[in-house]
Amino acid sequence: MKLLEPVRIGRHLLKNRIVMAPLARARGDERRAPKDIVGTYYSQRATAGLIVTEACHVSPTSATRARATANHDAHQTLAWKQVVDAVHAAGGVIFQQIYHVGRKSLLSGMPNGQVPVAPSAIAAYGGIMKEDGLEEFPVPRALALHEIAPIVEDHRQAVRRAGEAGFDGVEILAGNGFLIDQFLRDSTNKRTDSYGGSKENRARFLFEVVDAAIAELGADRVGVRLSPHFRADHIDDSDPVGTFSYVVSELDRRGIAFIHLLEGTSYDNSGDIPLYQRLVKKPSAGGGGAGPRSGEPFLAPILRPLFRGALILNSGYTRDSAEQAVRSGAADAISFGRLYISNPDLPERFRLNAPLTEPDTATYYTNGPEGYIDYPSLGDRVAQVPAA
Ligand SMILES: Cc1cc2nc3c(=O)[nH]c(=O)nc-3n(C[C@H](O)[C@H](O)[C@H](O)COP(=O)(O)O)c2cc1C
């Protein structure tokens, strides 16, 4: 299988083209540092060519579900270092995904009763399912012009901390309706200053973050995740082709290692992520989903020629469709999300065409080891067979 062949992505020669997609799993401690089981979980998955961690908050003002992880203080960085050491000891390559959730912060999680911030004061549709029910996203406060540079600086510090923890690189989450995406797309960015209006202005925040990351780690250790078709919280853009062609061309000019494009057909956030639970309409009804709406083109074929770095595609891929995408040259690598929750040895299972385990959605965010580090590898199964 070509999917199992090595590929160079930026500075790293990866042993295969199978990427573990970022998966928030809420296994942090009360100070948003990864618990011990996080190192076990990622090292169990170290046979992936590349692991991209769960999205990690860059600032206390980025606050979603309790026990989500972050990397903005020394306690968290130290805990991440242990995770990275465990993955490296197991032979893995691991990038930290970083983000600020902007308008998708919860009031209950904000320090000192602050109101979440965003490019414009437009609330995200939906909320986060908590033990006591759904907490809706609040109406955010529009950032003043002078408040933007400090948030770029938060990202820079997080990248520096990722380097200190030993991560092989960072992936900047510029999709999924979070802060950078809120700046990029014109339904959530109504600013009239140098960060709003034209696509060049809306992309300014992204490029300031990317340039800071490059200055810290080097372009060949920086990746960016984009999701041009993501509309689950009613974020949208009137010209996705124009906006994202420009973004990708500029990322190409900067020579970053990879673009990770969430552009599938079969992944509907509303079914899987309690973040959007119940309130999100199905793609057919005009919301949700990670694929283009009818009449809108898939962007990967349009964006691919604009970018000379590696293209990682995601969403809804199977062993066979991933192999096909890599063989056809549509992608350099494919990332897998849900399959990686329940199949720690995914490359080996693909190699053998072995059966795959289904993930248990009930334990996605339950903070403990159940449904996290107890999915067996094929080898574990064999070891459990009693001797004849
Ligand atoms: C439980 C869960 C948590 C997720 N957390 C993140 C995240 O932290 N960052 C991110 O960019 N995407 C996140 N995603 C989206 C996945 O990375 C991926 O895009 C999605 O699962 C579709 O890929 P798949 O069809 O291979 O599962 C999450 C998805 C799930 C199911």
Automatic annotation (TrEMBL):
InterPro entries to which the protein is assigned, alphabetical: Aldolase_TIM, OxRdtase_FMN_N, Oye-like
Transmembrane portions of the chain: none
Domain NADH:flavin oxidoreductase/NADH oxidase N-terminal: 2-352
Name by which UniProt lists this protein: Alkene reductase
